[in-house]
Amino acid sequence: MVLETISKIIKVQLPAYLKKLPLPETIGGFTRLTVSEWLRLLPLLGILALLGYLTIRPFLPKKKKQRDCLINLKIQKENPKVVNEIDIEDLRSPNVCYCRCWRSKTFPVCDKSHIKHNELTGDNVGPLILKKKIL
């Protein structure tokens, strides 16, 4: 049943549709088409544009990979993760971690979003850790 329907469309309806299209004999003839004639051409032009795109798509430049989205381009790239510790005497809590990846949902406080970012991109960004100096 399905194949019979497809066969009928290809053998009967498609040739009849193509015969009724207002295709001019010259390129200049396209300028003389009326609005209704252009509307009748739209489905065919859309299919031709889609087929053209699908044909050239393999040759189009690829999207940039996640690795191209690094935040840290040059700081301590030899380390698996950049973490700096600074002793500060006046902190209220013993440790405070500040975000340096700009992805924390609790910015400026680190929520460890850099872990997922580092896995996706190969980056090595980490938090700034402030430690209360114990005397």
UniProtKB/TrEMBL annotation:
Domain Iron-binding zinc finger CDGSH type: 81-120
GO BP terms: autophagy of mitochondrion; regulation of autophagy
One Pfam match: zf-CDGSH
Subcellular location, record wording: Endoplasmic reticulum membrane; Mitochondrion outer membrane
Cofactor: [2Fe-2S] cluster
InterPro entries: CISD1/2, FeS-contain_CDGSH-typ, FeS-contain_mitoNEET_N, MitoNEET_CISD
GO MF annotations in UniProt: 2 iron, 2 sulfur cluster binding; metal ion binding
Segments traversing the membrane: 38-56
Cofactor note (record): Binds 1 [2Fe-2S] cluster.
Record membrane topology: Single-pass membrane protein
Record Gene3D superfamilies: CDGSH iron-sulfur domain, mitoNEET-type (3.40.5.90)
Entry keywords, A to Z: 2Fe-2S, Autophagy, Endoplasmic reticulum, Iron, Iron-sulfur, Membrane, Metal-binding, Mitochondrion, Mitochondrion outer membrane, Transmembrane, Transmembrane helix
Family: Belongs to the CISD protein family. CISD2 subfamily.
Main function: Regulator of autophagy that contributes to antagonize BECN1-mediated cellular autophagy at the endoplasmic reticulum. Participates in the interaction of BCL2 with BECN1 and is required for BCL2-mediated depression of endoplasmic reticulum Ca(2+) stores during autophagy.
Protein name: CDGSH iron-sulfur domain-containing protein 2
Organism: Astyanax mexicanus
Lineage: Eukaryota, Metazoa, Chordata, Craniata, Vertebrata
